[in-house]
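Researcher: For the annotation table, I need structure tokens for Helix-turn-helix transcriptional regulator. Please keep the output clean. Sequence:
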Amino acid sequence: MHTSVTRCADAPEPGPGVDREIALALSGPGVDAVAGARAPARGTSRVVHLVLLAPRRDGGPAGRASHVLRIDLDELGVPVEAVRVAAGRLRTSPLYPLVRNHVVHVTVEAPALAHGAAATALGATTVDLVRALILSVVGDPQAPGDARGGSATARIQAYVAAHLRDPDLSPARIAAANAVSTRTLYAVYQALGTSLARSILDQRLEGARADLASPGRRHHSVAAIARSWGFRNPSSFAQQFGRAFGTTPRQCRRQVHARRP
């Protein structure tokens, strides 16, 4: 993955069913403390830290970081000030649960996910989701002619990420909501090196895999999780999941929970 993940050894690991939190921080001294305070550092480095917070040892709200996921600010493609503003508003975003679940899975399973042909695509998906999370709470701060392809690209990506669970999400609907033609919509994703359909499918599969690995959703059926991510046909979901990850949804769930103490 283009992003890098660091484990913070002193942080406690939560037990089953305990939801962790995520926080944003800019590179600078005391990132762990900054993350706990829910405010970004004023450092000058071009690195954004997406911090996974573990529960405090006394059972209180999440405190010290258990993992830190680093993303280059230029790769993220949003201004520094947007990160600072978003840091205090993450929980207000409808994308927060999606991104949190994704980050939990990516960081906890980092050793297994760091290799293979899918690693680069997973890193790009992670960056896209973090960008969409930021834009969902601060709006679209990019100026026309931005090197990443302009504000329309970021706006479209944010819209798609926010509506991934809708089984009726369609190119026509996405284009209309973002005031572009379907031809322009397809061109946006072609410029990103993928297709609209592939991007939606990959993000939905990643979301479903994160839910299958979540202790809090252990009692949800595979079919229910598939439906919650816009897959109407459980058999089709299982086939697509197998092609993407080399295992069935049930096997994935068993393997993840078997590794937990």
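Researcher: And a one-line annotation?
Model: The mean pLDDT is 75.
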